[in-house]
Amino acid sequence: MTTEAEAQRLDAADPLRHFRGRFDLPEGVLYLDGNSLGPLPNSTRERLHTVIDGEWGDGLIRSWNRLPDKLGGGGEWITLPQRIGAAIAPLIGAQAHEVIACDSTSVNIFKLIWAALRMQAGDDGRRKVVLSEPGNFPTDLYMIEGLERQGLAERRLAGVDDIEAALDEDVALLMLTHVHYKTGRMLDMARLTAAAHDRGALVLWDLSHSVGAVPVELARAKADFAVGCGYKYLNGGPGAPAFAFVAERHLHALEQPLTGWFGHAKPFDFDDDYVPANGIDRLLCGTPQVLGMSALESGVAITAEAGIDALVAKSRALSEFFRACVSRLLPDLPCVSPDDPAGRGSQLSFRHEHAYPICQALIARGVIGDFRAPDILRFGFGPLYIGYEDLLRAAEHLAEVVATGEWDREEFRARAAVT
Amino acid sequence: MTTEAEAQRLDAADPLRHFRGRFDLPEGVLYLDGNSLGPLPNSTRERLHTVIDGEWGDGLIRSWNRLPDKLGGGGEWITLPQRIGAAIAPLIGAQAHEVIACDSTSVNIFKLIWAALRMQAGDDGRRKVVLSEPGNFPTDLYMIEGLERQGLAERRLAGVDDIEAALDEDVALLMLTHVHYKTGRMLDMARLTAAAHDRGALVLWDLSHSVGAVPVELARAKADFAVGCGYKYLNGGPGAPAFAFVAERHLHALEQPLTGWFGHAKPFDFDDDYVPANGIDRLLCGTPQVLGMSALESGVAITAEAGIDALVAKSRALSEFFRACVSRLLPDLPCVSPDDPAGRGSQLSFRHEHAYPICQALIARGVIGDFRAPDILRFGFGPLYIGYEDLLRAAEHLAEVVATGEWDREEFRARAAVT
C-alpha cells in the first residue's frame, strides 16, 4: 500500500506530525539527509539569536556565569556541556552524570580509546588490540591508527560476523559503530558487549547514526563507553559538538590524555599541576564552543520533547514505507540495508553503479539524499519533520531519474567533496 | 596628561575610531575584558544570521560545498579552516598555507607537542623534555602533563630568566606563551627561539594573548610551531575555534596523533586506512564547527581590515594612557605589567589583596575587567572598540571603588567560577 491516499492517511495519523511545523524546510525541498546534517529547528534559530545578541552581545564575558537579567532562557555557558549530556542521557539509556557534550566525535573517540587502553594496561601489558570492523566509519578507524602510531594500540579489523571469533586475550577494546553509516545495519549491542566482556575486553560504541532515531540502551547492554554526533538526528547544527558516555562504574578510574583546563577540578585556580575534575567532567579539554553547544542544546530539547519511543516507532514506519514505494517503482534497485526495520537505523541505502550522478540529479529536483562511495545512494528519515507523502514523492522522483536516464549529464557527473 | 580634554583629543585623533561603530557594546558598559572574550561585531551578527537562516536553514547539507545562490557572502563550509588560517597568517608573520583554524587551543597544543616530540625522536630517543615556565597558562602546562602520563614527554619548568640555562640536550621542545595571560609580559620570541634552536630544541609559541594586539613575526623569529585562541582579540565569539601554525619547512614531515577524517587526503573516499592530507590540512581532525568558524572568520576580517600595525600602535597608546590615569588616581596600586609598552601585551594588571571583590564591584558599575587568582586585577584594551575617554572613566571608577571601600560587601566577595 503505497498510494497517495495511504500516504495521506499515515500522515494524518502520525502522532509526531505537529513537529513538522517546528522546522521551516525550504520550499520545494524533500530533505532525506538529516542523517548527515539535521535541519534548522525554528526554536534553534530563536535560541541562537538570543545567544548572539543577548548572551554574547550584551552579556559579554559575564554570560559564562550568569546571563543578563533580561534573558529568560539559555542558562550560563559554563554548564552547557553537563546540561546537554544530561539531556542526551535518556535518549541512550544512560544516567545524566555519565554523559557530557564536548569536542568532536573524533576527538572523543581518541580520549576514550586511550582511557580504555589505560584501564587495560594493569594486567600484563599485553592487551593492546583495538578490534573493529573494516568499513566502519573512517574516522573511527583512523583514530585507532593514530594510537597505533604512538605504540599504544594495535588495530585489528574483523568482519562483523567474525567479531566474536576475533575476540581473544589480546583485545583491550571492541569499538564498533552501532548503526552503520553506509548500510544502516544495526548491531546487537547487548550480545556483542557481553561477548567482549567474556573475553575481558571493554566496549566503545559509536552512536553517531543511532541517537535520536533508534533504541539505545547503554546501561542495559552494560556498555563501557560511547560517543556520538550532535549534527545528525539531534539536529544540533553543522559541525555541532559531539558527546561522550562513560559508565558510572568506570568514572572513578577514568583517565584521558587531553588534559586541558576545562577538565581540571578547579580550572579557575590556575594551578600549574593538573588535578582531574570528578566524574564525567574530566573528559572536557579546552573552552567549550558556546555557539555550537547552544544550538545542540536546543536540538536535543526537541528530540527529548518528542520522546525516543515515538521517534523510533515513526522512524521504522517511515523506512518501511519508503522501501515499499521504491520496491514498487524500481523493483530492480537493490536495497543494501537490512530487511528487518528493527535491525537497521532510520535510513535506507540502495546500490547503483551510477549512484553519484543519480544523487546529483535528485538534488537538482530538490530531493536531497546523499552518495556514499563507491556506489551507494543513501536516504535518511528524520522522524521529526519527514512525512509519508514526502517519501512517496521522493520515491517517484527517484524512479523518474533512473527510468529516464536524466542523471546521465555532465553537470551531474562532476564531482565535488561531499559530506 | 590624563585630563578629559586630553582623552577627547586622543579619541578625535584616533585613526581606528570609526571601528567603534562596528560594535554595539551595551549601554553603560566599559568593556576592558576583550582579552578574555572579544565583543560581538555587528558584521558577525549579520554573518551568523545568514549562516543560520540561509546556509543551514535553506542550504542544508549542500552548504558544505556550495552556498545557496541567493547568498552572496560566506563561502562553502568545507574550506572554512583554510580560509581563516590564510586570513590570520598576515597577523602573525606567517604564510597562508602555514596556518589553519581547528579545534581548541588545548587540542592544538596536544597535536603540536606530539608532532615536535615525533620529529625529535629520530636522534637517540633521549630528547623528551618539554620545557616551559611555571605560571604559564594552565592548559599549556596540563597538556604537557597528559603527554607525560603517556610516557612520551617529560615536563620541565624553569622561570623565564632561567629558560636559556635550562635548555640542555634533553629538551625536545621549548613551549612558551608569548604574552603572559596574567601579567601581560611579552617574551622576546626571536631571542628565545634562537637559543632553543642552538641547543637543538624546537619551539612552540602560544599566541592566545598576542594575536590581533601585538606584533608577531613567526617567520622572522624562525618559530617552528604556534597555536592561538580565536575568542580574545580576534573577536571570534565565545569558545571560538583556535588556530595552529606549522613552519613550511616542517610541513612535509608533520605527523599528528589526532588522525581524524578531516585530516585525511581524501576524506570522502571513505577508505579504511589513514593517509594524511598534504600540508597544514593534516592538522584537521573531526568535522569543523561551522557556527564558531563563521563567527571567527568574520572577527578576523575586521582585524585584518584595521591592519595589525594600526592595532599595535593603538594598543600601546591605550595601555600607556590607562597606566598614567591609574598612576595619577591610585599612585599606591602596584602595576605588575612591564613598564615598556613594547614589552607587554594590550593589557595591564594590578595587584591588590582584595582584587576579587574590587573586580566584582567594578562589574556592578559596568566596568568589566577581570580577576586572576590570587590577587590580580586585569584590564585589557581591545584597540578596535576602546577609546581614551573610556579608559579615563574606567580608571575613575576603579579609584572610587578602592578609595571608598565600596568593594567590601558580601555580594562582591561571593565567588563564582570566572573565566
Automatic annotation (TrEMBL), chains A, B:
GO terms for biological process: anthranilate metabolic process; L-kynurenine catabolic process; L-tryptophan catabolic process to kynurenine; NAD+ biosynthetic process; quinolinate biosynthetic process. GO terms for molecular function: kynureninase activity; pyridoxal phosphate binding. One of its GO terms (cellular component) is cytoplasm. It comes from the Bacteria. Pathway: Cofactor biosynthesis; NAD(+) biosynthesis; quinolinate from L-kynurenine: step 2/3; Amino-acid degradation; L-kynurenine degradation; L-alanine and anthranilate from L-kynurenine: step 1/1. It catalyses: L-kynurenine + H2O = anthranilate + L-alanine + H(+); 3-hydroxy-L-kynurenine + H2O = 3-hydroxyanthranilate + L-alanine + H(+). Its EC number is 3.7.1.3. Keywords: Hydrolase, Pyridine nucleotide biosynthesis, Pyridoxal phosphate. Its cofactor is pyridoxal 5'-phosphate. Pfam families: KYNU_C (PF22580). The modification N6-(pyridoxal phosphate)lysine is found at K232. Belongs to the kynureninase family. Catalyzes the cleavage of L-kynurenine (L-Kyn) and L-3-hydroxykynurenine (L-3OHKyn) into anthranilic acid (AA) and 3-hydroxyanthranilic acid (3-OHAA), respectively. Homodimer. HAMAP family: Kynureninase. This is Kynureninase. It comes from Qipengyuania oceanensis.
